[in-house]
């Protein structure tokens, strides 16, 4: 069974804590990591990859000092080791241009504006991890009960 990670990044600790808390229902089968900068995410990804672990989803704020969320997700999308990693942009301050750039260059799968719905975020991450498992060709059976059943049925046709 693959060790699946979800990485959440936001430079504001209280927002990051809220995201982690909202994703708690998934913690029984996913490892949820938190980072406070894009640079920290890239370091963590290197470590997890070196340990043979998988990064299924990154949930990133956009406006952060140093490296923006779009810059981070674009860099991740350029690394062939993480080509299947799904990306979510979570922000209250991205411009229309930022959002288009995120979709076109970073391969962002979903975009949430702050404040977000916890149920929608959990559902989105569950769906994206389900796609990730199938895209990577992993055996979905060990995770079957946790996955988005609509996607499972779709993928098995």
UniProtKB/TrEMBL annotation:
Gene3D superfamilies recorded for this chain?
Answer: 3.40.50.2300
Instruction: Mark the residues carrying the PTM 4-aspartylphosphate.
Output: 61
The superkingdom of the source organism is Bacteria
List each copy of the Response regulatory domain by range. 5-129
Task: Provide the alphabetized UniProt keywords.
Answer: Phosphoprotein
Record's keyword annotation contains Nuclease = no
Q: Name one Pfam family in it.
A: Response_reg
List GO BP terms, alphabetically. Answer: phosphorelay signal transduction system
What is the protein named? Hydrogenase transcriptional regulatory protein hupR1
Q: Which organism is it from?
A: Vibrio thalassae
Q: What is the lineage of its organism?
A: Bacteria, Pseudomonadati, Pseudomonadota, Gammaproteobacteria, Vibrionales
């Amino acid at each position: 069974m693959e060790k699946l990670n979800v990485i959440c990044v936001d430079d504001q600790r209280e927002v990051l804590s809220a995201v982690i808390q909202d994703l708690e229902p998934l913690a029984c089968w996913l490892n949820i990591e938190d980072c406070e900068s894009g640079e920290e995410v890239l370091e963590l990804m290197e470590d997890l990859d070196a340990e043979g672990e998988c990064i299924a989803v990154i949930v990133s704020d956009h406006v952060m000092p140093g490296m923006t969320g779009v810059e981070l997700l674009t860099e991740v999308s350029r690394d062939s080791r993480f080509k299947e990693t799904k990306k979510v942009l979570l922000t209250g301050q991205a411009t229309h241009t930022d959002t288009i750039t995120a979709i076109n260059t970073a391969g962002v799968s979903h975009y949430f504006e702050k404040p977000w719905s916890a149920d929608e975020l959990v559902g989105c991450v569950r769906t994206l991890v389900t796609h990730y498992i199938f895209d990577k060709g992993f055996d979905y059976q060990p995770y079957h009960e946790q996955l988005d059943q609509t996607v499972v049925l779709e993928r098995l046709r």
